[in-house]
Amino acid sequence: MINVLIVDDEPLARDNLRCLLNDFECINIIAECSNAFDAIKTIHSLSPDVVFLDIQMPKISGIEMLSMISPHQMPHIVFLTAYEEYAIQAFEEQAYDYLLKPIEPNRLNKTIQRLLTETNRKNQIQIKNQHYLKYIPCVGHNRIYLIDPNDVYYVNCRASGVYVINQDNIEYLTELTLKTLEERTRLVYCHRQYLINIQKLKEIRFVQANYTEIILNNDVSVPVSRRYLKRLKEQLELV
Question: What is the pTM of this model?
Answer without folding.
Answer: 0.55
